[in-house]
Amino acid sequence: MRDVYIIGTGIHPWMGFSEQVFADFAAVAVEGALKDAAIEWQKIQSIMAGIFIYGGNAGHLSGQYLESIFGETGIPVVNVYNACATGSAAIRMAFNSVVAGETDTALAFGADVSPKGFLTAKSDNAVQDRDVIRWKMGGMPNPIYWALECTKRMAKYDTTEEDLALVKVLMSEYGSKNPEARFKKAYSLEEVLNSVYVCEPLRLFEICPVSTGAAALIMTADEELISKADNPVKINATTMGSAIYGDPTIRISALSCPSVAEAPMLSESYSASRQAYEKSGIGPEDIDVLELPDNSSWHYLVYLETCGFCGEGEADKMLRDGETRIDGRLAVNPSGGFSSHGEALSAQAIWQVIECANQLRGRCGERQVDGAKVAMAQTYGLMGNSGTTILTV
Amino acid sequence: MENMANTVARIPNLVDWSTGEIRLMSAKCNSCGTYFFPREHYQHRPGCSREGVEDVLLPSKGKLASYTIQHYPCPPPFKTEKKITPYGIGLVEFEEEKIQVAGIITDTDLEALELGMEMETTTLAMYSNEEKQQVVTWAFKAAK
């Protein structure tokens, strides 16, 4: 296997609903990545594009739309959708293309414009699309799923409402130091605990909204491009996992789950992370910076356990003891996380990898993790989708 | 059970009241033993022959395995004539079938919800359709 490096990254800052089209946001991110890598568009030999699911034909063929903006060159352009792990799938395909020698330099990008209001069903066929049932019959928006798991957790372990609020306090502190975050206000514990319940035990400030944003990264095995790049970051592994039979988690869109666990919770992420540890030879103990998918405060806690950073039920203690702070043994979500950004479906996994790369390149200013050498980005998408990327400098 | 004449489920093949009890319409694989709900969403153990899947009704009663109280109205396509927020959502466990099913909690004091309490499958009237039928979804309530 040859070594593959990230040489350029670009982001369109996260924001709320916009009348602008997704391709314009994508172009900003791609332009930024080309400038960062200091290469011309014609050097890109393949494009792996995240599908923008609410964008109709244009969104489903986002790679072709993007290519036409910069100039069509006949290269392979593949569009992929894996729910909120869409960006992970794009990165993984770009990596596989380069590592296998099919191409030397590949672009992965995702851009998403949040729909006004809530994400809801995308079809009206209840037989084919179970999502229709949960909306029409279940009355279950996404945070309900997280709350059902959080209630189970609080009964099983000693997780408290203060723990859930403390996650937001930390995330908002970091978000306030991140110029590209959408939410920049730092909250006190009291303010979080005074925010209204959305679905008990989760409060308004403890769940993330949907956002608009775009992210792009360029990776290469071309030695000349690597040698010219500003602090290139090595991709040690980038993997995807799906769920494992017997996983007791109630997955978003599902109406049932097994009552007897035969697999780990969030098994898609267990699977993606274990594949990455095995492929890279890097384990949780080696990682300095972790970007995890904090869709809610519950996710922040459970992901530390799912990915093996502590044992089951031990994440609350890690949090309370300050081990997950920027100056702790494992800096968790120095970006401010989804809590400070919101979800931009096809872009968010790429943005997480970019944050990790920026930390390793020492570009993070006030939120910089001192001496970071190894970073991991962990995503999560509904119906059993997950990706893990491990990077080093 | 209430009088269910002139009542229709908003989406068919999910909840049944033909036996005199309100029960969820599940399916079971007789090869790997997996129960799944809804019936159309097949689930099997890896390596299963997938032979002998049959439609089954879950028991009317189960235990509350988790719950939450939803404080804002669920957006469309969810629809009810009357305001139901705040409403409970429960995960009810059917022990023998090794499955937990999610559903709205109705006719129950939400303050009195406790993990492990016995719950009974019921229906929740959502709205009346053009044929003046009562359109319902499945739901759970504290068992009497």
What's the short story on this structure?
The complex is a heterodimer of chains A (393) and B (144). Chain A is α/β, with parallel strands linked by helices. Chain A has helices at residues 22-37, 56-60, 62-70, 86-99, 130-138, 142-156, 161-175, 189-193, 223-228, 267-280, 297-306, 315-320, 337-341, 345-360; strands at residues 5-15, 46-50, 77-80, 105-112, 197-199, 202-203, 212-220, 233-241, 256-258, 289-291, 331-332, 374-378, 386-392.
Could you characterize the architecture of this molecule?
The complex is a heterodimer of chains A (393) and B (144). With 393 residues, chain A is α/β, with parallel strands linked by helices. In chain A, 37% of the residues lie in helices and 18% in strands. Chain A is built from 14 helices and 13 strands. In chain A, strands 3-2-4-7-1-8-13-12-10-11 form a 10-stranded mixed sheet, with helices on both faces. Chain A is globular, with a radius of gyration of 20 Å. The two termini of chain A are 18 Å apart. With 144 residues, chain B is mainly β. Chain B has one domain. In chain B, strand 3 (23-29) and strand 4 (35-36) form a beta hairpin. Chain B has strands at residues 7-9, 15-16, 23-29, 35-36, 53-57, 61-70, 87-94, 99-105, 118-128, 134-142. Chain A binds chain B through residues 117-118, 120-121, 124, 126-128, 130, 132-133, 135-141, 144, 147-152, 155, 196-202, 245-246, 250, 254-260, and chain B through 9-11, 14, 36-38, 40-41, 43-46, 65-72, 74-79, 84, 87, 89, 91, 93-95, 98-104, 115, 137-138.
